[in-house]
Design brief:
Oligomer: single chain
Low-confidence stretches: none
Number of strands: 2
Order of helices and strands: HEEH
Strand order of the largest sheet: 1-2
Structural class: mainly alpha
Mean pLDDT: 82
Radius of gyration: 19 Å
Largest sheet: 2 strands, antiparallel
């Protein structure tokens, strides 16, 4: 029963973030999923970069 409650909450609150559109039938928007994943990765990368910079870690960019 607890799992069913979590699943119900997820359907209403979490699934739109992953591209699912449920009113009128279950459909999925792939572009929304892709955008959400890309934004999450950018957020992680920003956090890593900020942490490294605040720790005085220097980076080198090589060109060919």
């Amino acid at each position: 029963m607890h799992y069913a409650g979590l699943l119900g909450a997820a359907i209403h609150h979490d699934t739109p973030k992953y591209g699912w559109q449920l009113p009128g039938g279950a459909t999925h928007d792939w572009a929304t999923l892709v955008e959400s994943v890309q934004l999450y990765i950018k957020k992680l990368n920003f956090g890593y970069r900020t942490g490294l910079t605040s720790s005085d870690v220097r980076s080198f960019h090589w060109t060919t």
